[in-house]
């Protein structure tokens, strides 16, 4: 039975390329504009390109933010991509201070001004993985991924970080907690590595993982 993957469309993002990548990775992808339909899907992706302030405003005015939070509480996996990852955080200072979904205790801040370092950060860069996770299965160490962003995620809890990247200093390239995963790079542009991560996300049973972790903690 194929896994149905909903791609939340809130008016910001490259939905078609993400949808195509999900299909190549083996999922059944739908671009979802109606927030009431999100619960129909086995997996959910929150994509995004553009500005944080406009994106979070659209999420809230469309009812998508409330629906996303309801989906999160079901325990089914959610993947945030690029701006989608940033929206999962507590706040961002892009065009003023704006509150995000608050799923991660993390802040989104612009890359600091460093001589000879261009912002935005565009192109391929190495990932340094900090712990194991089902979405990283079969992903080789020091894998390269494709980035396009001017703001970076600064997590409060180091345990939330799955992978670091270095661009004028380390920043969180991947974060994860419970049934949530955020990736700053674009898997749909990261060739084999990106498709592997999407395949793993589609196959990931977050509820089973949470049950296993609870059992281990109580042993």
TrEMBL record:
EC number in record: 4.3.2.10, 3.5.1.2
Active site per the UniProt annotation: 82 (nucleophile), 186, 188
Presence of the UniProt keyword Amino-acid biosynthesis in the record: yes
Swiss-Prot/TrEMBL keywords: Amino-acid biosynthesis, Cytoplasm, Glutamine amidotransferase, Glycosyltransferase, Histidine biosynthesis, Hydrolase, Lyase, Transferase
Pathway it works in: Amino-acid biosynthesis; L-histidine biosynthesis; L-histidine from 5-phospho-alpha-D-ribose 1-diphosphate: step 5/9
UniProt subcellular location: Cytoplasm
Catalytic activities: L-glutamine + H2O = L-glutamate + NH4(+); 5-[(5-phospho-1-deoxy-D-ribulos-1-ylimino)methylamino]-1-(5-phospho-beta-D-ribosyl)imidazole-4-carboxamide + L-glutamine = D-erythro-1-(imidazol-4-yl)glycerol 3-phosphate + 5-amino-1-(5-phospho-beta-D-ribosyl)imidazole-4-carboxamide + L-glutamate + H(+)
Single GO biological process annotation from the record: L-histidine biosynthetic process
Pfam families (alphabetical): GATase
GO CC, one annotated term: cytoplasm
Gene3D superfamilies, A to Z: 3.40.50.880
HAMAP family with a match to the protein in the record: HisH (MF_00278)
PANTHER family on file: IMIDAZOLE GLYCEROL PHOSPHATE SYNTHASE SUBUNIT HISH
Subunit structure: Heterodimer of HisH and HisF.
Protein role: IGPS catalyzes the conversion of PRFAR and glutamine to IGP, AICAR and glutamate. The HisH subunit catalyzes the hydrolysis of glutamine to glutamate and ammonia as part of the synthesis of IGP and AICAR. The resulting ammonia molecule is channeled to the active site of HisF.
Official protein name in the record: Imidazole glycerol phosphate synthase subunit HisH
Annotated organism of origin: Chitinivorax tropicus
């Amino acid at each position: 039975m194929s896994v149905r993957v909903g791609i939340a469309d809130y008016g910001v993002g490259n939905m078609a390329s993400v949808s195509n990548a999900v299909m190549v990775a083996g999922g059944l992808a739908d671009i979802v504009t109606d927030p009431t339909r999100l619960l129909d899907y086995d997996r959910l992706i929150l994509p995004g390109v553009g500005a944080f302030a406009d994106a979070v405003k659209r999420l809230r005015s469309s009812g998508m933010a409330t629906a996303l939070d309801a989906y999160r509480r079901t325990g089914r996996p959610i993947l945030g991509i690029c701006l989608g990852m940033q929206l999962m955080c507590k706040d961002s200072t892009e065009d003023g201070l704006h509150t995000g979904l608050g799923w991660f205790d993390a802040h989104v801040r612009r890359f600091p001004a460093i001589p000879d370092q261009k912002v935005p950060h565009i192109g391929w860069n190495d990932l340094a993985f900090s712990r194991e996770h089902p979405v990283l299965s079969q992903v080789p160490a020091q894998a390269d991924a494709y980035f396009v962003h001017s703001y970076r995620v600064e997590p409060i809890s180091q345990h939330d970080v799955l992978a670091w990247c270095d661009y004028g200093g380390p920043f969180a390239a991947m974060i994860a907690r419970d049934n949530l995963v955020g990736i700053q790079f674009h898997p749909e542009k990261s060739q084999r590595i990106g498709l592997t991560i999407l395949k793993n996300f589609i196959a990931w049973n977050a509820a089973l993982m949470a049950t296993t972790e609870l059992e281990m903690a109580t042993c």
